[in-house]
Amino acid sequence: MILKLFKILRNAAIFLTLILLANQQILSQKNSQENRKDQNLDKVTVYFETAKKTEALLFCEVAKTEKERARGLMFRKKLKENEGMIFIFEKPDLLSFWMRNTKIPLSIAFIDENMYILEIYKMEPFDDRIITSTTKAKYAVEANSGWFANNFIIPGKKMRFNLKKKG
To answer: What is the pTM of this model?
Structure first.
């Protein structure tokens, strides 16, 4: 009797493990498909004025719709050295970001409507704390953690980019 019960429990455990593995595979495929969708975002080169009176370039994907901004860099496994994402908002406002479902440590710069950098923060992976700009910003740029400091980009410096309209 005990042996029969053990076999039933063992088979149930194997069955549950297979269901969990299949579910994990489905979620992984879904995230992979969603990441491929990110490749369809517009891309733009963003130029930053540095404290050394030079320019640093960051190759950015553009998040300009509410859906694109909400997704941001979530689920990405890596970000190349000089790549990032620029978030473009319709009008200046206090902007808030978090790192839920974001695997990569990032830095974020909040930028005003005149393209001046207001402030820069470091953000840790999977952190649910909300980072909010202290003044109204129209743009936010995310890059690998430390990218702004490593390139001598500080508040008060300007950025520029030229986003070509499609169609």
So the answer is: 0.76
